[in-house]
Amino acid sequence: MHPAYSVIFFTTASGAGYGLILLAALFGVLNGVPLDPWFGAITLGLGTILITGGLLSSTAHLGHPERAWRAYTQWKSSWLSREGILATATYVPLVLTAWGWLVEGSLEGPFGVFACILILFCLLTVHSTGMIYATLRTIRAWHDRMTVPGYLCFALLNGALWFHAISQMFGYQTPEIALAAIIGLFLTFYIKRKYWRSIDTIPGPATPESATGLGDIGRVRLLEPPTMTENFVQREMGYSIARKHAQKLRRICFFTYFLIPIILTGLTSSSDAWIAVPGTLLAALSASVGVAIERWLFFAEAKHVSMLYYGAERS
Amino acid sequence: MTLLPPKGKKKLGLVIDLDTCVGCHACAVNCKEWNTGGHSAPLPDHDPYGADPNGVWFNRVHTFEAGEGTASRTVHFPRSCLHCEEAACVTVCPTGASYKREEDGIVLVNEDACIGCKLCSWACPYGAREYDTDAGVMKKCTLCIDRIYNETLPEEDRVPACVATCPASARHFGDLGDPNSDVSHLVEEREGKELMPELGYQPVNRYLPPRTRQKDQGASGVGAALTPVTDPDAEGAGRFLRWVDRVLSR
Amino acid sequence: MAPKIKDRKKVPVYCYQCVAGPDLMRVEVEDGIATRIESNYNITDKHPGGGRVCVKAYGLIQKTYNPNRVQSPMKRTNPKKGRDEDPGFVPISWEEALETVAQKMRGIRERGLTDDSGFPRLAVSFGGGGTPTQYMGTFPAFLAAWGPIDMGFGGGQGVKCYHSEHLYGELWHRAFIVSPDTPYCNYVINCGNNVEASGGVAGVWRQADARVRGLKRVQVEPHLSITGALSAEWIPIKPKTDAAFLFALIHRIIVERDWNETCDVRYLKEDTTSPYLVGPNGYYIRDPETRKPLIGDLSDGTTKAWDVDIGNAALDGSLSVSGIEEGADGEIWTHESVEARTAFQLLIDHVTQFSPEWAESECDVPADKIRQIADEYVAHACIGETIEIEGVEMPFRPVAVMLGKGVNNGWGGYQTCWARTMLASLVGALEVPGGTLGTTVKLNRPADNRLNTVRPTVDGVMDYPFNPTTEGEWLADPHIRNAYRTLVPLAANSAWSPALGPAHLPWLFQKKQPEHWPKQTKPEMWINYRTNPAISSWNAPEVAERIAEFPFTVSFAYTRDETNHMADIILPDCTDLESLQLIQIGSTKFTEQYWKHQGWAIRQPAVVPQVDAMDLTDIATALADRVGILEAYNASINRGAAGARLHEKDGAYDYGIDPSVPHQREEIWNAVCKAASHSLTDGEEVHDLDWFRENGFMLKPFPQLQWYLYPRMKETGLRFEMPYQERIKRHGAQLANRLHEIGIDWWEKQLDEYEPLPSYERFPDIWTEPIKEAGQSPDDYPFFALTARSMQYSWGANVGIPLINEVANNISGHRGVIINRTRAKEIGLEEGDPVEISSVTGVTRGHAVLREGIRPDTVLMIGQFDHWATPYAKDLNLPSLNSVTTLSLSLTDATGSSADLAMVRIRKTDGERRVV
Fold first, then answer.
1. Do A77 and B92 lie within an 8 Å CB cutoff?
2. SS3 assignment for C668-721
3. Structural domains for chain A
4. Is the Cβ of B20 closer than 8 Å to some Cβ of chain C?
5. In chain A, which residue's Cα lies nearest the Cα of B128?
6. N or C: which end of chain C has fewer CB within 10 A?
7. Chain A hits for B44, Cβ within 8 Å
8. Which residues, in sequence order, are bridge partners of residue C458?
9. Contact with chain C for residue A224, Cβ under 8 A
């Protein structure tokens, strides 16, 4: 699949944003962090910027952004529609939670409920994003049990690392946050490993033979494509990346989202601020880069079944 | 609404005979000429005289090779929207622009409601949808809805443009929901194939596979009845295969 | 918001871009702009292709609005000509253009129409297949009014056509083109005939119907063509060895098996010359009085003339017989009780050597496969069965043998054409329902009705207009430069003969003057229309060099191209959708065009000319006027040069135009419309131009019975001239005498081909001759390079149209050089690799296309375009066989043709891999 930068940016940024907001709300409700208005403003603010920027960028690849409102109508069948509705709806508990934290200085009572709703909506929104991909049977690499957990884990991981870094800036050395980040790291590592193994070993069910119905004659291969230059389908669906490049990128991805953050987090989170702040910030930045690469690979490694009509040997 | 309608009785679609298709592309070209003035007009055409011509076609003809050596077959393979019963391109659409008609099963795009997110093209396993970068909307085969119900056309012309032009009679249009229609009979007689049935989209269009090639018994099968010079079982078949092997391993 | 369309109309016209036309169609025109092509559905039930148009027709919109069209008349400013010279064309007015040409023409007329060598000073070349005549309006009337013209400079004829079939086909069964009776045929042995690509819509339509009905086609060819892909079986034969395969089929049927069981004995005895007795000198034993050939009658033990009531003709064996033999140049041998074998016995004796095992070693088809196919052929022939066609009972023999280009032209063409006709004759399948039929005549007259060309001879076979070879009658001084009347008796002398002679010889002779031959002069003026010899000939680059040497060239042109690159004047004529003409349609013609109707169809301006172009009819009239031959030109139109006679000799009608004044195209075609409709309906319906413009065409029924020659042969009591070719033997001997008398020894190999029963030769080896002549080793050129027809390109001159290029590029193999997948791997080639294909005389480049469906010793290039001047096409970088074929006398057969074939080597070159 063609990796569209707007979509990669969108899912990476909004994932991080929802993760950050979710963790902030969670720790806020559980009194895991002080409800300092500045701290709240920066965490929730950064989260809002990330999800809003992401959402806006996602409309950049639309042919008719001005009609984007129509996407709220088909929640009954379309995960994309559901994602849009949930993403928008999330702003309501977000504003109410922020009011509680920044103005009231409390996340108890109704504000606690709002924060819990916010946590739920963040999870549901990211889940919807994952489902858009996971329900596409046409793309084996997306139609995988690990796709939705992957989206959720990466959102949490990114959110946790950013939340950790901001906490360090405010001098909150909360071991639970570091722990959450480390749990997020291992969980993601496990899920991503499982995902890659799955897509590497289990091909999609369709073959050139089933795509053409010519399997009774023998092995089927494309002799002539139907167009002399690449058409829309080939450009959109036919992006492919050499296996050796994919392996290299997977290693870089592993270094940036897992290895570097886990080392930095482990080594610096309980150090003095002048080490901990840059250390955890670097961990968050590194993971963000890693997730962007992961998201790019998620597209680039995904083969669309329609490519069977253009010479692909497996779906 | 992008929920699929209740399954109707009528399922208009195409039956394509891969045994007689000569791969001439008249169907693809006539489709383009009709539809660039039809329901989804215009179909863009960029850089026609340049190095990278590009544009939207609803119907494309591939050529496949199946099998090995002298037993290999070359098969021309026209491909367009198959108007699936379980049309995922419809259900993924966030705006309701993509829809399946209850009355005849045709899958269409309402261009006024399309936001151009392209998700439907991702959901289509057959690569049948093409994005119009000029209009910012998705386009696809309409089964020539502007011909088949067009009362200003003579009745015999009320078939999709691709069917109207095919010189090999390799394209048949009709109601695949009616077990007594000509197209349903064709599918039954020739064991018409569903493409990628394992994905479960239940395409309406069917493909009639090439008739099997006559192998060693001869093109007609009558050879063996006529005083064979050598026992075909003992020697003929073996010799033929050895020859195939020899020719191809040269 | 798009402007509202005020005026929308559908204009009926025809497409005749290829020889498989016409496709009748309608052009949708919106506010004067042609937007869409559609089939003319009014003819659906009358047209043999269901009234459909072929994909080429859809390209006519782009053809009309092609931005690369020549915008106005132009003249050359650079006197130097050559591929690397910029012609420096500048636009001029029509007045200047026509006057420049007319002035030159007047000069020629003043000096004399022929030059010191006796060759016409004016030469004119047209594209192949006769398709240009469907577009050239009244230009034929101009040519007729002019006088002697050299129309023998070919644009690829001979290698690009079914050459030997044209000549021998007309000789044996009035079959300029041979076709199976597809609607009835059940079994076809198809040696390389690619009807699904070259037979147009009618070919595809009728073949598809037949396939659904159950017709089995065995495709015998080195690569799996479009047609092969849709056949019941594919036999990958070695290129140019089809004669061995076909000879072995005959061997199987009459030597290995009992011919009394496998053959239609009655047909052989009564309807062919098989029982004719052949004397010791190889000529028929004739009755001394009547000179009629004799047949042995087993019922009373006597010999009788062929037309006497014979109880039971002796088909095989020999008889002791008295009579005369008539050899070459009137030589007579008188025999008393000489032993004479029947022609059929000579056939048996001749083919005894061609066993399936022998053939296997020659052509790579297993002996048992050959036996199987022969047996299937016989089994499907339904010998003894009859069928009723329009109330007439006729034999029903649903089998046919078809030959493709490359099989039936060049060396081996005589052998394959003879063998296929022989195979049809053996089972009685020649010219009967279901069998092997001819469609049209181009060499015999009258050209509009092949049945009426059947005229008797004393031999009991159809007359044939051989070019005379006897002393005194032989044309020792060729009247045009390709010398068809001098060198090729079979080429006859019709309007088509110049193109069917050795049309490449002038190019060859322009380079090297042959010995004992009139001095090869250049034409003072050369006009070309819808042809591009600089691209389409064999060894096209060499032909381009010759064209550059011509002193004054006038090119009718649609776009710039390689031939008009050398032009002095370029004239843009109105193209397909802009011009006016009425043509004859229906009856039987070309391949698969068997109509049950005949009539007339119009091509009319659907749009105004998109450039400063003139209709060719108006150009012809203007030139005739300026040159001073207007009266003769108009008279020629009145005599029928525009398709229909404007006045009937018997005074039945007279729509003639006034010969003394010039007429507008509408006036001329209005008269043609009236005359055509009058003659079609015997005056019952007379329609003018406006009627045709509205209705597009008119038809009346054409009897299906006229598809078959057999009833006419029975009516006239004549026999098909099979198997023995006494006339060919005699003409060969006489031609040899004539040529030797004037010392010519460069046509010896061709003279050897005049055999009464064709012998076999290792035909592929002939194509290594040019390699040996160049002092190189044939081992260095291990591949046969072939080409194949393409529905999208053939004759269309449309390679410069993006739509057609897009389509063609998506069709198997058009985009490069097809090579066997396994073989490619062995020589280190991968899909899309840039390759260079070279023969001893030329080189071309392209990209490798790997597939299973081709022999390992063969490569195929479908596109034949190495364009270097045609806009758009010159940037396509397609390989072309025409750049590697060798223009050579040693590759020229006795009919003056060669196969489109070259021995080549392949080398991977630097450059980008082009992957699909």
1. yes
2. HHHHHHHHHHHHHHCCCCCCCHHHHHHHCEEEEECCHHHHCCHHHHHHHCCCEC
3. 5-310 (1.20.1630.10)
4. yes
5. A233
6. N
7. none
8. none
9. yes
pLDDT beyond 70 at B225: no
Report CB contact under 8 Å: B57, A227. Answer: yes
> Would you call A228 an interface residue with chain C, using a CB distance cutoff of 8 Å?
yes
Could you tell me the maximum CA-CA distance found in chain A, to the nearest angstrom?
A: 74
Element (DSSP H or E) covering residue C324: strand C318-326
* Residue of chain B whose Cα is closest to the Cα of A65: B115
Residues 6+ positions from B222 with CB-CB distance below 8 Å: C375, C376, C379, C380
Chain A environment of B77 (Cβ under 8 Å): 212, 309
* Residue range A190-214: mean pLDDT, rounded: 96
pLDDT (0 to 100) of residue B230: 35
In the block, tokens 């469907």 appear at: C134
Check: CB of residue C139 under 8 Å from CB of residue C529: yes
User: How large is the average pLDDT for residues C662-687?
Assistant: 97
Interface check C715 vs A, CB under 8 A: no
Nearest to C39 among B164, B213, B226 (CB): B164
Q: Is the pLDDT of residue B223 over 80?
A: no
How would you write C280-314 as a 3-class SS string? CCCCEEECCCCCCEEEEECCCCEEEECCCCCCCEC
The CATH class of the B12-249 domain is alpha beta
The set of chains that have 3 or more CB pairs under 8 A with B is A, C
- pLDDT of res. A271: 85
From the centroid of its chain, how far is CA C365?
28
Q: Is the pLDDT of residue C694 over 80?
A: yes
Q: Which of C598, C487, C500, C482 is nearest to C169 (CA)?
A: C500
Kindly tell me if the per-residue pLDDT of C376 is higher than 60. Answer: yes
> Which burial class, exposed, middle or buried, applies to B202 when counting CB atoms under 10 A from its CB (0-12, 13-18, 19+)?
middle
Cβ atoms of residues B119 and B29 within 8 Å = no
Cβ separation B113–A70 shorter than 8 A = yes
Average pLDDT, chain C: 95
For residue B237, the model assigns a pLDDT of 41
Residues sharing a CB contact under 8 Å with residue C691, sequence separation 6 or more, in sequence order? C673, C677
Using the structure block, give the residue that is written with the tokens 């003056």.
C896
What is d(CA C899, CA C239) in angstroms, rounded to the nearest whole number? 10
Q: Does position C295 have pLDDT exceeding 60, yes or no?
A: yes
State phi, psi for C616 to the nearest 5 degrees: -60, -30
What does DSSP assign to residue A16?
Answer: H
The predicted model gives C339-359 an average pLDDT of 98
Residue B242 pLDDT exceeds 60: no
Question: What average pLDDT does range B212-238 have in this prediction?
Answer: 42
What is chain A's alpha carbon radius of gyration, rounded to the nearest angstrom? Answer: 21
Nearest chain B CA: its distance from C231 CA (Å):
8
Q: Measured between CB atoms, does B111 come within 8 Å of chain C? A: no
The CA-atom distances, in angstroms, between C776 and each of C417, C773, C909 are 33, 8, 22
For C369, the closest of B167, B240, B248 (CB atoms) is B240
Model confidence over C72-122: pLDDT tens digits? 999 999 999 999 999 999 999 999 999 999 999 999 999 999 999 999 999
> How many residues appear in chain C?
916
**DSSP assigned state of A138:** T
Burial class of residue C82 in the structure, from the number of CB atoms within 10 Å of its CB (0-12 exposed, 13-18 middle, 19+ buried): middle
Q: How many C-alpha atoms does C175 have within 13 Å on its Cβ side?
A: 31
| Alpha-carbon distances, residue B220 vs C292, C400, C427, C700, C737 (angstroms) | 43, 14, 18, 39, 50
Q: How confident is the model at residue B215 (pLDDT cuts 50, 70, 90)?
A: low
CB contact under 8 A, A211 and B195: yes
The candidate with the shortest Cα–Cα distance to C317, out of C301, C332, C306, is C301
Contacting chains of C (3 CB pairs or more, <8 Å) are: A, B
- Which bin fits A100, alpha (ψ -120 to 50), beta or left (φ > 0)? alpha
